[in-house]
Amino acid sequence: MAVIDELRAVSLFQDLSQRQLRQLARLVKEREFRPGVTVVEEGTMSGVCFFVVAEGEASVSVDGTEVARLGAGDHFGELALITETERTASVTAVTRLRCHVIAFWDFRRFAKDNPEVAWKLLQHVSRMLVAERGRAARAALFTA
Predict the structure, then answer these.
(1) pLDDT tens digits, the chain, 144 residues: what are they?
(2) Domains present along the chain, CATH in parentheses
(3) Residues with Cβ < 8 Å from 115, sequence gap 6 or more?
(4) Residue 133: phi, psi to the nearest 5?
């Protein structure tokens, strides 16, 4: 599958035009990770990049507990695109993992030129925040 097709499969990029997808594809670097390799590590400044999983499977963990699995079409690192802070989770390759990687500074320029992407990213991060608040509220009920 071509990089443009793989990017189009990502919810953040689904509404982009063919021209915009070509622009974004030019910013992408491809990286491969062997099983067991930690791609990003919770609590560290392990790069300020956004990752799109092209092939393979990865485990997402917080405080050492797996919270999700990622596969082709999934993405991670969107908070690093906005906050430039420490990673909030670790992502480890379960199988051979091929990712498209976009550096923060390249994505920022792209988002400024394509405000609909910035808007979708804002909506996505807001949904993440709402979900996290819901989890925290449920946890508080069980610990009270």
Answers:
(1) 688 888 888 877 877 889 888 999 999 999 999 999 999 888 776 567 889 999 999 999 999 999 999 999 898 887 766 666 677 889 999 999 999 999 888 988 888 888 887 787 777 777 767 766 666 666 666 665
(2) 3-143 (2.60.120.10)
(3) none
(4) -60, -40
pTM here? 0.78
Q: What is the DSSP letter of 35?
A: T
| Buried/exposed 54-67: b ≥16 CB within 10 Å, e otherwise | bebbbbbbeeeeee
What's the CA gap between 33 and 138, in Å, rounded?
Answer: 36
H/E element holding 33? strand 29-33
- Cα separation of 91 and 39, whole Å? 6
Residue-wise DSSP of 37-79:
-EEE-TTS---SEEEEEEES-EEEEETTEEEEEE-TT-EE-HH
- Could you tell me if 91 and 43 are in contact, meaning their C-beta atoms sit under 8 angstroms apart? no
Give pLDDT, residue 46.
59
Looking at the DSSP bridge assignments, the partners of residue 103 are 49
Amino acid at 122: L
